[in-house]
């Protein structure tokens, strides 16, 4: 079964061709490492999958059904979530409040409605436990490590029971120990049957968790192969153009 399938995805802005006939797929519970230099088309492809952009041509299929996204909300309805590099967390709020940001559960007592913080803490604790993160629901984000912040951002995506989680540079600018924590979280998402698209420049991290590697160069897909059949040296050559395709 294929969770996500892209067929001939192209995107142009006037005379600028950002993507050219990219065909790619990912299975349930698979980690796909998406690599390429700046300007290779990674961000454009991610934004098309996330519903921020519409492709100029090509088709997107989810669970073998053709879909058309006109907004990020459309993509979310199909089970696609994104953890962006800046994480978009509120430092002054607790972990639980960040997990539920904009989706807070409300209880009513007669005519009075109030935010159900107990429910937020309970569900958040369950999500952190699922990720095997040491993050606690009442912890303030501003006091957290980079790895804990990533766990909060990932837990937020799990609220909607996603099929696909895209992660943009999740291990950038964090310590070696925190990198290990984030990579463990990615493995746990995979173990729960969630497909993960990992966008990263950090070669060791990509090879540590990816089942397959895809490389973009100048808007074209130049490699799409099992990680076990590739190497950091090969990917470096593909990114720079020293190797034309693999």
From TrEMBL:
<dbReference type="InterPro" id="IPR027417">
    <property type="entry name" value="P-loop_NTPase"/>
</dbReference>
<dbReference type="InterPro" id="IPR050107">
    <property type="entry name" value="ABC_carbohydrate_import_ATPase"/>
</dbReference>
<dbReference type="GO" id="GO:0005524">
    <property type="term" value="F:ATP binding"/>
</dbReference>
<dbReference type="InterPro" id="IPR017871">
    <property type="entry name" value="ABC_transporter-like_CS"/>
</dbReference>
<dbReference type="GO" id="GO:0016887">
    <property type="term" value="F:ATP hydrolysis activity"/>
</dbReference>
<keyword id="KW-0547">Nucleotide-binding</keyword>
<keyword id="KW-0067">ATP-binding</keyword>
<feature type="domain" description="ABC transporter">
    <location>
        <begin position="4"/>
        <end position="243"/>
    </location>
</feature>
<dbReference type="InterPro" id="IPR003439">
    <property type="entry name" value="ABC_transporter-like_ATP-bd"/>
</dbReference>
<comment type="similarity">
    <text>Belongs to the ABC transporter superfamily.</text>
</comment>
<dbReference type="Pfam" id="PF00005">
    <property type="entry name" value="ABC_tran"/>
</dbReference>
<dbReference type="InterPro" id="IPR003593">
    <property type="entry name" value="AAA+_ATPase"/>
</dbReference>
<protein>
    <submittedName>
        <fullName>Sugar ABC transporter ATP-binding protein</fullName>
    </submittedName>
</protein>
